Amino acid sequence: MRSPVTGIVTLLALLLVVIVGYMSLFTVQQTEQTIVLQFGRPVDVVTDPGLHFKAPWNSVINIDKRILDLENPSQEAIASDQKRLVVDAFARYRIKDALRFYQSIGSIQAANIQLTTLLNAALRRVLGEVTFINVVRDDREKLMQRIRDQLDREADGYGIQVVDVRIRRADLPEQNSQAVYQRMKTEREREAAEFRAQGGQKAQEIKSKADREATVIVAEANSQAEQTRGAGDAERNRLFAEAYSKDADFFAFYRSMTAYENGLKSNDTRFLLRPDSDFFRYFSNPSGKMATETPAKP
Predict the structure, then answer these.
(1) Which residue intervals define the domain Band in the entry (predicted)?
(2) Which of 7, 28, 63 is the endpoint of a domain?
(3) What's the structural domain count of the chain?
């Protein structure tokens, strides 16, 4: 039979083998790349996912190989036309050389700090070469590409590849925005006043022209009416004269009847005339002949 000591030694040996085997294995995830360190010195870089072996005394450091975000706080930049800009930008990057990254920076947090400094410097350099209009409207896409290229060249020494740089917002500072808004408001009010003045002048011209044309039209109409009225009066007089020449008694009777109609209104029939006046001759004699006065006797 085996002695108890032999069993214990065997158990310890198996336990040692298990421990050594466990310390010799490590796993690389699909989203990671691993650096193998021997007494703090890098000896290998593993990028393939899966189970891998190492010396039991070696250690490993996992580094993310996915695209990482870099959120940059708002920064002020001065354009070439000396206008101050508040720029809100962000970047996307990934670690392409894990060994260089570990030797130069060492961690994601340190990389974010360093890239923030480099991004701010690139923003100021690129935006300082163009005008405010180029930044906010005309060449924004090209400017972001230039900033990305500069940042990528500077980050290459740290084993980092900059994938993209985007400018969320590029605007004037608040106090400048208010001044620009007020200036734009004043300019628009001036233009509106000018348009109103031009419209008022045009309206006055149209009104004056219309009044002048109306005056001419009314004058022509009055002239034509007077001519027509004169022609009518002449024709009336001609007809009266013709009628008078045909029957003077009837014409005198007609004129008297017209005078009665015009003079004897329904609301006032008072006249201050002598009863034997020629106006009332048809009242005393239907023929219209005045009675002959009887001479006084001696």
Answers:
(1) 23-184
(2) 63
(3) 2
Q: In angstroms, rounded to a whole number, what is the distance separating the alpha carbons of residues 225 and 217?
A: 12
Tokens 């005394």, residue?
57
CB 65 within 8 A of CB 94: yes
Query: Are 70 and 117 within one domain?
Result: yes
Q: Which residues of 13-38 are buried (b: 16+ CB within 10 A; e: fewer)?
A: eeeeeeeeeeeeebebeeebbbbbbe
- Crossing angle, helix 140-155 and helix 108-127, to 10 degrees? 140
What is the domain range of residue 48? 19-63
| Token digits of residue 250 | 């009837």
Backbone angles phi, psi at 130, to 5 degrees: -130, 170
Question: What DSSP element (H or E) covers 275?
Answer: none
- Per-residue pLDDT of the chain (298 residues), as tens digits, is 456 777 777 777 777 767 766 677 777 788 888 888 888 787 888 888 778 777 777 778 888 888 899 988 888 887 777 777 888 889 999 998 888 888 888 888 999 999 999 999 998 888 888 887 777 777 788 888 988 999 999 999 899 999 999 888 877 776 665 666 777 888 888 889 888 888 888 998 899 889 888 998 999 898 899 889 888 888 887 877 777 777 677 777 777 777 767 766 667 666 666 666 666 666 666 665 655 544 444 4
Q: State residue 189 phi and psi, 5-degree precision.
A: -65, -40
CATH number for the domain that contains residue 110: 3.30.479.30
Query: Residues 259, 260, 262, CA angle at the centre, nearest 5°?
Result: 65
Name the one residue in this structure whose structure tokens are 């007609």.
254
Identity (one letter) of the amino acid at 8? I
